[in-house]
Design goal:
The complex is a heterotrimer of chains A (288), B (301) and C (371). Chain B has 301 residues and is mostly helical. Helix content of chain B is 73%, strand content 1%. In chain B, strands 1-2 form a two-stranded antiparallel sheet. In chain C, the strands form four sheets. In chain C, strands 6-7-8-3-9-10 form a six-stranded mixed β-sheet, with helices on both faces. In chain C, strands 11, 12, 13, 14, 18 and 21 form a six-stranded antiparallel β-sheet that branches. In chain C, β12 and β13 form a beta hairpin. The chains are: A mainly alpha (288), B mainly alpha (301), C alpha+beta (371).
């Protein structure tokens, strides 16, 4: 499946006598772009103001000086270092887990015939229909039983393998020409070998998509950490941010500095890997 | 010398059945423990009086009966529905208009697209925090704008009559990019020739849009409506960060109510019942949407 | 009179590509003209400019006498059949046919009458309730034509409408198109890269290459008297054999071939021999040795491929160059169509001759025909 081109292809026939030197679309798109960007812009502006300025009316657009001190202050007000670390571990672990376990299962469903496979797949699919809020309370109890409450492990464990990932990869694997795998089998490669040496290398787009989706989901996850984590040192980023908010809710400059810091990684990744992001998101929509 | 049949134990070990189950085992264990078991356990919990600390005792359908009569739950459902009914059409229709506008190769289009996509990447928590400031009754930017054009100051998130609508605006801002991406991809899938043929057939731009483009976007629209609805019914993060369900409970939605019940008041059984009712609600709404969609949406083979 | 006139039409795309170069063409009312040429020659661009889907960079386009450069497609009263048919996939055949009429706000009863008329004309009556996805290629093609005809347009534009059909259907549809034109008499401009289609369908054909008009005329005339080397090499299947030659004092020499052509100016020339013009040499004919490599018996004739005792050149029709490009002898084979009764054996060398009157001469520098 080829990824959709998101760059426009249509060039309209040149319109006769334009009354404006530019396309009228700009008149519509400019305000829209402004609306979308203004909140983020203010986030940055406020992060560089003093506490007084951040609360003054009218709002201060250009701060008197650039109070970068807000940033280290926010970093120290709550254990930001731990937040980043925990989120990174959480996100990377769930991505790795998903890529590995979902690949294994998806390959089995796609290419292997084993007793009960159809039933099992349907059961997996059925879990997708259930909203995760239903799973929330019992999962909490299970994690508690496993002694993983208030730890990063407790964050990771329930999210190591998603039925969505299994489904997505299975669909993708089925589109690969089976002759390649058959040739490898004749050459004596084990099934595991086929998966790792032939199927997965050909599945990079799908794996990247799954990876990105899972990464974004884990990085921005809030409700589950809220329930599981009590100690600030064990909190991932978004939960940590809300802790900052809880402790310093009126110090907007500090709060915004913390917010900016917490959003930078995701924004940076997005800007560098735009195409993959957009492709992944479009993919979920096109599949339907 | 012919090839001999390998011994039975070798056959089973090398068999596809074993391999299949071996491959599937990690996923099976993980999904089993963290999805299948919870689904069943949740049902059991909902039939219990359970405070999540000590084992609970069975009360049959008491929780569900209580839910049906619970005014707080009723208003949570009401708030959720109001939110959904506003959020879904606004974001889907808005995204369609935006996607059409963004589907051209004019100068700066990359910048405009980026501007539309970026809010999607920010987390729900960050969105909540920023909008808390923007909507502040005293020094927020929006009140400043109102002030500048001579309109009275609003309480926004602190006004029980306005708070929910503010949440709608905030979440539309945060999620619009997703819908735009899906629509843009779908628009790209419409062959230029169809649009040209329509032009030659005498249709105005608007007519072409209505008769050719919109019907062909049917599958994308259906997907977005179903997806947005499911997400809207599960709203939580922004509420927690901004209003904690207030003021006066005006922004308490179903999932927030669940959170309160299960993790603040430790009514585990009750919370599980709420979850199951939510599940049922989502299922019914989705089914209805899909059925309607099947009848009205054209799928290209 | 709704004819179509292009006056010095040029189209330059952003980026510098000159798709159409000073094209001037006059199509009479009711005429069936074919624009033919290799891919990239500008024929589709020219068609789209007539339709109004592209605007000429310079030049004028007239339909029915009036200048239409500024007029949008929907107001030009033209109809177009696209290469991929462009049928609305979500509408039934009936609604596809009715769509153009609904845009013109015709009363429903008239629409229905007209749609059924056209459906009957194209044998689509039984398919009205189906969707395009449920139709075969040929049926879709007819629906596309029906949608174009339903409005009784002044000009009918077709962009390679048969290229997606299998060979047998193509032959059938060609005949059908011809019948349709005879019956309806609508001015038709038809684009194709297939010169067989061009020869069989057109009242006049316009050969394009590299955005420029190479020759315009009735098919037989273009075949018998190609204006330049490009047209000579493009029209005709198997293609004309082109030999490198020189003219001196009224005598043209191309390898072994020698012919007398008084009045031909001295210089390098290209000698063109159509495969069917070559026959077993008789005394007095200009003749040349032909070593037979491959013999293809076709029943009513025999096609032989081989090497001539002369230097063959090729006109690179894919590169759109009307100039004489040269690939030296090796690799290009000569082709001749012979009487099956005198079938030569592979590996033998025969002597082929040609009537002087059937030899085509072209100036090697300009590519133009020398008469």
């Amino acid at each position: 499946m080829t990824a959709p081109r998101l760059l426009p292809v249509e060039t309209p026939p040149e319109k006769p006598r334009r009354r404006l030197p530019f396309s009228p679309r700009h008149l519509f798109l400019m305000p829209v772009a402004a609306i979308m960007l203004v909140p983020l812009l203010w986030m940055v502006i406020l992060s560089l103001e003093t506490e007084v300025q951040a609360r003054s009316f009218p709002p201060v657009l250009i701060p008197s000086g650039l109070h970068f001190a807000n940033y280290p202050a926010a970093w120290n007000a709550v254990p930001f270092g731990d937040f980043f670390l925990n989120s990174t571990i959480y996100a990377l672990s769930t991505v790795a887990g998903n890529l590995l376990f979902c690949s294994l299962a998806a390959y089995a469903f796609a290419r292997l015939r084993f007793v009960g496979s159809n039933l099992l797949f349907i059961v997996f699919l059925a879990t997708l229909m259930v909203p995760y809020q239903v799973l929330l309370i019992p999962t909490f109890l299970i994690v508690k039983k496993l002694g993983m409450v208030d730890s990063v492990g407790g964050l990771i464990a329930p999210n190591l393998c998603s039925a969505f990932g299994v489904f997505m990869l299975r669909q993708f694997f089925r589109t690969l020409p089976i002759e390649l795998e058959e040739a490898a089998r004749i050459d004596g490669t084990s099934r595991l070998g086929i998966l790792f040496r032939i199927v997965l290398p050909l599945s990079l787009p799908a794996l990247a998509t799954l990876g990105i989706i899972q990464f974004m989901w884990s990085w921005n996850d809030f409700l589950w950490p809220l329930i599981i984590i009590d100690t600030a040192n064990h909190a991932p980023l978004q939960l940590g941010l809300s802790m900052l908010q809880g402790a310093h809710s009126t110090q907007w400059n500090l709060l915004m500095a913390g917010t900016v810091m917490s959003q930078i990684p995701m924004l940076a990744i997005f800007l560098f890997a735009q195409r993959w992001f957009i492709r992944s998101i479009a993919f979920t929509g096109i599949k339907q | 010398m012919g090839l001999e049949r390998p011994p039975a134990w070798k056959r089973i070990l090398g068999s596809e059945h074993l391999a299949g189950w071996a491959f599937v085992m990690p996923a099976f264990i993980l999904i089993g423990i963290f999805a299948l078991v919870p689904i069943g356990w949740s049902l059991i919990l909902s039939l219990q009086n359970n405070n999540l600390l000590a084992p609970g005792h069975y009360v049959g359908f008491a929780n569900y009966r209580a839910l049906a009569k619970d005014p707080a739950f009723r208003s949570a459902v009401g708030h959720t529905l109001v939110y959904t009914v506003l959020f879904v059409p606004i974001s889907v229709v808005g995204a369609l208009g935006l996607a059409v506008a963004l589907n051209r190769k004019i100068r700066g289009i990359r910048f405009y697209r980026l501007a539309v996509f970026v809010p999607l990447v920010t987390s729900t928590v960050a969105t909540g925090i920023v909008f808390l400031w923007l909507l502040d009754p005293t020094f927020g930017l929006f009140n400043y704008i109102l002030h500048a054009v001579g309109l009275p100051q609003q309480q926004f998130l602190q006004d029980p009559n306005q708070a929910l609508y503010c949440i709608v605006a905030m979440t539309v801002w945060g999620w619009l990019g997703f819908d735009v991406i899906v629509y843009l991809a779908a628009l790209q899938g419409i062959p230029d020739e169809l649009l040209e043929a329509s032009k030659i057939d005498g249709a105005s731009s608007w007519r072409t849009f209505r008769s050719v483009v919109v019907p062909l976007l049917g599958p994308a629209t259906l997907f977005l409506v179903v997806w947005s609805t499911i997400n809207a019914l599960q709203l939580f993060d922004e509420i927690y960060v901004t209003t904690r369900g207030g003021p006066l409970g005006s922004t308490t939605v179903i999932v927030y109510y669940l959170y309160e019940q299960a993790f603040q008041f430790f009514n585990g059984g009750y919370g599980a019942a709420v979850a199951y009712v939510l599940f049922l609600g989502i299922l019914i709404v989705t089914l209805v949407q899909l059925l309607v969609g099947r009848r009205t949406v054209y799928y290209r083979s | 009179m709704p004819g179509v006139v292009l006056e010095d039409v040029t189209k330059v795309f952003p980026g510098g590509t000159v798709a159409v170069d000073q094209l001037s063409l006059e199509i009479a009312d009711g005429e069936f003209v074919i624009l033919v040429g290799p891919s990239g020659c500008g024929k589709t661009t020219a068609l789209r400019m007539i339709a109004g889907l592209e605007r000429p960079t310079t030049g004028t386009i007239r339909i029915g006498g009036g200048v239409v450069n500024e007029i949008s497609p929907r107001d030009r009263d033209i109809a177009m059949v696209f290469q991929n048919y462009a049928l609305y996939p979500h509408m039934t055949v009936y609604r596809n046919l009715a769509y153009p009429l609904r845009q013109r706000r015709m009363p429903r009863r008239d629409i229905d009458k007209r749609v059924r008329e056209v459906a009957e004309m194209l044998s689509l009556e039984d398919l009205l309730k189906r969707r395009p996805a449920q139709l075969s290629g040929g049926q879709r093609q007819r629906v596309a034509m029906g949608r174009a005809l339903v409005r009784e347009p002044d000009v009918f534009l077709l962009d390679e409408p048969l290229s997606n059909l299998d060979a047998k259907l193509r032959v059938q549809m060609r005949a059908g198109l011809k019948r349709l034109h005879t019956r309806l008499g609508i001015t038709t401009v038809y684009v194709t890269h297939d010169q067989v289609e061009a020869m069989t369908l057109g009242e006049r054909i316009a050969v394009l290459s590299d955005g420029k008009l190479q020759q315009l005329g009735p098919p037989q005339e273009v075949y018998d008297r190609p204006a330049n080397v490009f047209v000579a090499g493009f029209i005709g299947s198997p293609p004309m054999n082109l030999l490198r030659g020189a003219a001196r004092g009224g005598r043209v020499t191309a390898g072994q071939l020698v012919l007398e052509r008084p009045g031909v100016p001295d210089g390098d020339v290209v000698v063109g021999l159509r495969p069917e013009s070559m026959r077993t040499a008789v005394d007095g004919m200009p003749a040349v040795d032909f070593r037979v490599d491959v013999v293809e018996p076709l029943g009513d004739e025999v096609i032989v491929h081989g090497a001539l005792a002369a230097e063959l050149i090729a006109v690179d029709t894919a590169a759109n160059d009307a100039q004489v490009g040269s690939l030296n002898g090796s690799g290009i084979e000569a082709v001749a169509r012979l009487d099956p009764r005198h079938r030569p054996a592979e590996g033998t060398t025969i002597r082929l001759g040609i009537e002087t009157t059937e030899v085509h001469l072209f100036d090697a520098a300009t590519g133009l025909a020398i008469r």
